[in-house]
Amino acid sequence: MAAPSAAGMGRRLRAWLPRIMPVRWSRYNPSYLEPEVKKESYQKPLEEQTEEEREQMELKAVRPIKAAPPTLSSSVFSDPMISKFTNMMMKSGNKVLARSLMSQTLEAIKRKQLEKYHKAPENEKETIECNPYVIFHQALKNCQPIIGLSNITKGGKTYQVPVPLTDNRKRFLAMKWLITECRENKHRRTLMPEKLSQELLLAFNNEGPVIKRKHVLHKMAEANRAYAHFRWW
Amino acid sequence: QLDRGCALHTAARDGLSSVSSQDVPAQRPRAVFHTSESDPAKHTEQHEGRLYNIPLEEVKAVFPHGLPHRFQQQIRTFNEARVMVRKPALELLACLKGSNLAHPAVRYVIYGERGTGKTMTLCHVVHYCSRQGWLVLHIPDAHLWVKNCKELLQSSYKKDRLDQPLQASVWLKNFKSSNERFLQEIKTQKKYMWGKQECTEEGRPLGEVVEQGLARVRSASDAVGVVLREIKQQSHRGSFRLLVAVDGVNALWGRTTLRKEDKSPVSPEELTLVHNLRKMVKNDWSGGAIVTTLSQTGSLFKPSSAYTPQELLGKEGFDALDPFVPIPVPNYSPREFESCYGYYLERKWLQHEKAHTEDGKAELQFLSGSNPRQLDRLAGPL
């Protein structure tokens, strides 16, 4: 894919060679455009499109397009957070198994909540949340830490210094804690969907071992407040 | 049960069923196909594509075994058992209603691709027959008798046959719970010896044979054989009508994965249960009907694309079942799909916001290919 492409895409791009030669990353020529999967963008009539959108459409007619990665889906039901979580659950590239575990987890959450819903008296029915996606997102949000700890070596000793976290890092930590909690601290014979659905429901209600781990991290950061000035970024 | 039969699309055709349903809100554009007719005898083409309710006590009485696992989970989640009335089932019911019980039993074979609803059609017919008071001999899955058997005993009755005590006792327990009253009425016509000491006299109710099979698990397979023999011999008298419902009948003529102690493979004839069931499925008795289903899902050594009777039964099975009425079961028609989709929406099974939109519905129809099992599996996580 690399190689200087002499397709005549403009003077800047004629003798193009990447500064670093990537081995595992994508090596597309910068002239390649990203694929667009949303149906709505193709169904918009010409009048509604702004200047940039019209230019973009015309560009698409002449420029080549990158191949769409397998994770990119045009389905209305696809959710980037769920895909990320599925990828983190995956072992040795077995995406089929990871995806089926994820769908079984969502179904298990839905069944538990629906059973509770049908047994509950009328006035409590609105409080019970049955949508597994809402529960998943809320549980992840509840598990995200606000502040993290980082190891900084100063004068030969390593200190745990409280440090702000980016959004990506928070999401990653929340998902990682949920998965490790399910893999390690449960009975050997329980299946993953069962364990995960239980953990997600506990996290949704702000209970459970993952929330506890988040609180422990916050307490450690609070205790190490004195070293906060060691951070230089 | 509230009378819930509102059909927006078919109002012109049906005319009736304009009963208003209080729990369907006015703003929902999709029709909810329910029918309050819970007696399968009264189901006609008018009810096609609609879901009828079976009261939960009846489910426990009529189907101690036999319902698919996912359907049982659905009953537990929704707190009700709703079965769709479909054309193959209506055809079968019409044939059964018009059948002459003096003639030899007619064999019906329900076949179709994977996940199209063959077992549910069988369960619909079983429900109809038990409502009409027939004696129902329901074998939930014949494949369970030819694979994964932990204990194989040599039969005491015939030297070269093998007994399966576990499977036989499980089946006897379920048979007893669904057909209590027949077991008191039917009397044995011969004296049966169980081992050296115990025997059942002539003229004792069949319930005693079943008790004997449950108490002495070693002779459970022989008890099953005796029950089948007695019922078959007495069915022509007319005091009861017999329905033999076998799911996965292609297991009786295939191969097994069982091995004897010297590691030689077991063929199905060598199993007592299979041998007796084959005699039951032969049409040399009168006073009832035999309804069977082919199934590739649990079958052994058959390719996954096989679904026709010729492919699944093989030459031997096809010849044994030969004059039979084939009943194909297709995927959902657009109307049935609408009905199923509306039911999932109404029961709050489809929770995703996009699932309520037209786009979501079109996507579900495309991805599942209107196959009932695929639709159920897709709608699970949504």
Topology, element by element:
The complex is a heterodimer of chains A (233) and B (382).
Chain A: H1 11-14, H2 39-43, H3 51-62, H4 80-89, H5 95-119, H6 132-143, E1 147-154, E2 157-164, H7 167-184, H8 192-204, H9 209-223
Antiparallel strand pairs in A: 1-2
Helix pairs in contact in A: 4-5, 5-6, 5-8, 6-8, 7-8
Chain B: H1 11-14, E1 34-35, E2 51-54, H2 56-62, H3 69-78, E3 81-84, H4 87-97, E4 106-111, H5 118-132, E5 135-139, E6 153-154, E7 162-163, H6 165-178, H7 180-185, E8 192-194, E9 198-200, H8 206-215, H9 220-234, E10 242-247, H10 272-281, E11 288-293, H11 309-320, E12 324-328, H12 334-346, H13 358-368, H14 372-379
Helix pairs in contact in B: 4-5, 6-8, 6-9, 8-9, 9-10, 13-14
What is the total tally of β strands of chain A?
A: 2
> How far is the first residue's CA from the last residue's CA of chain A?
38 Å
Q: What is the third-level CATH name, the topology of the domain at 77-230 in chain A?
A: Ribosomal Protein S7
Largest sheet of chain A: 2 strands, antiparallel
Biggest beta sheet summary of chain B: 5 strands, parallel
**Radius of gyration of chain B in whole Å, from Cα?**
22 Å
Strand content of chain B: 5-15%
Query: Would you tell me the structural class of the helices and strands of chain A?
Result: mainly alpha
Domain Small ribosomal subunit protein uS7 (chain A): 68-225
Organism (chain A): Hippolais icterina
Subcellular location (chain A): Mitochondrion
Protein name (chain A): Small ribosomal subunit protein uS7m
